[in-house]
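Dear colleagues,

As part of the handover before I leave the project, I'm documenting each prediction I ran so the next person doesn't have to rerun anything. This entry is a single chain, and its sequence is reproduced below.
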Amino acid sequence: MAQYIMNGGSPLVGEVAIGGAKNAALGILAAAIMTDEDVYIDNLPDVKDINVMLEAIKAIGASVDRLDRHSVKINASSVKDVLVDDEFIRRIRASYYFIGALLGKYKSAEVALPGGCNIGSRPIDLHLKGFKALGAEIEIESGRVKAHAIDLVASDIYLDTVSVGATINIMMAASLAEGKTVIENAAKEPHIVDVANFLNSMGADIKGAGTDVIRIKGVKALHSSRYSIIPDQIEAGTFMCAAAITKGDITVKNVIPKHMEAISAKLMEMGCEVVEFDDAIRVIAKNNQKSTNIKTLPYPGFPTDMQPQITTALALASGSSLVVESIFENRFKYVDELARMGTNIKVEGNTAMVIGVSKLRGAALKAPDLRAGAALVLAGLAAEGQTTVDDIKYIKRGYEDFEGKLASLGADIKEVDSEAEARKFNIKVV
């Protein structure tokens, strides 16, 4: 089984380029099938979730041409099937975007219920509520969502809770509905704006994305587009935290600093120096970083996908911090892994009390999910001695060439597939 193996204790220093936003790309790829014309997408991250999404698009009959590692041409004029259900698509959450895309274009969709990381219940009730409001009939049968409509008709839709997935899904379906749809209490994340901008580049009429009220005037059809995906906010935040965790000095390039404000603010509260440029952020860690409190919230609040990384940084800061997880109830599973390294973190319900320690020691760890896996790797790079992280398949779902980018910053890290490879690294596999 593939694992990362590393010798920690050295600060990470240098520059790292950030790839395209995975969460934006997943919605954009689904939306790309809503026209019969060619769609060109670049700045696409080369990660597992994206590659699974492209396979699913192929499986329903669309043509998918990889122009290079980070760009693709999609033509959905030959789509033969509104059934999306293969062994791969059930493994990723974003499979549900096919419901909105197919329902919008073909007025029919049959999509397997999604999987992904086990970080808590992420029901799709709000998605289905939105589709019903637009006039679709919904059934759930044999682990699939079946949605059908004679016509989609605009509606005023209020989301009971802020949901990124539901906002994107309803936005896609409503783009081809008759009349003017209003989504209230909409999510405001950067990737919602990116999906809306992409749909508008195809001829949709969407206003208000990035605010809590989105207005969508339905159009008859969408057309060809060329589009470049925004940088990944979470990848950028992960490398910013890498500076804090390893007491390093990292410049993240190809970012939108506005998207990073909540993360930058907390790192500054901890005592890091954060310098913003037009499309880059430099984080310079200090030896005497201090505690602060974190509460995860929908954008523009602190992102839940950055909670494990910032908690790891706080585990090495002086004083005690409170981390409140308000989005996903199972997001502290990694704390038991960190405890093997000597952290002092106590979890009660959705709150973690983090008491900072002066150092970590290397250990054999397992990644419980995507973002926690990345946090454990960063902890290993800060620890004294050697660390292994198993189950790195989770990390590969959302980070492109993670070990390569870390190595370029001075990390002593390698991906190994066997005990023999590990021995070459002078580490005994536990």
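The domain at 3-19+231-424 is CATH 3.65.10.10 (UDP-n-acetylglucosamine1-carboxyvinyl-transferase; Chain). The mean pLDDT is 94.

All the best with the project,
I.
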